[in-house]
Amino acid sequence: MKVRVDDLKDKAVELFSEEPPSQYVTLQSMEEKGECHFHAPLGVHLTVSREYDHIRVSGRVTTTLSLNCARCLSEFRMEIDSPFTIFYMRDAGLGQDKDVELTEEDLVTATYEGDEIDLSSEIAEQIILSLPIKPLCSHDCKGLCPACGSDLNESPCSCNQESISLKFAALKNLKVRK
Length: 178
Hints:
13% of the residues lie in helices and 34% in strands. With 178 residues, it is mainly β. It has one domain. Strands 2, 3, 4, 5, 6 and 7 form a 6-stranded mixed sheet that branches. A two-stranded antiparallel sheet has the order 1-8. 13% of the residues are buried.
């Protein structure tokens, strides 16, 4: 999705679109790798306005996708509704030092060149930032049995329920010669 800077005069511009995730390279790559599966197009609602020396883009991105649970490996659906605000400033062409500490304002500021602002990387970034680091089908997911691999959410397994410490499991059969 692109916005022409010259179209932003005195009032805010509202943009609505539904776009397939395949239009975004990073989202398509995630789907091809099997990290997720999109069930709905990306719903993008943006308000773009010119403010002083920058352009404010406020909006929301929504979609539905499937992830695999990190504990039991079952697939589950997740709704994403990610509101965001990004400030765009014209690129002054000044290089930055490598050892500069970023402020909170720098984290929501982006630069643009020319007469158009391409919003696609920020839209895809909002989806990626909304994904959990460790996706769980539910907070009380019991996961898989470490011995037999059965799903403990469906039924308890018949394995020996001894307290097994997996920290030193690799050393269990180690024989020391004297």
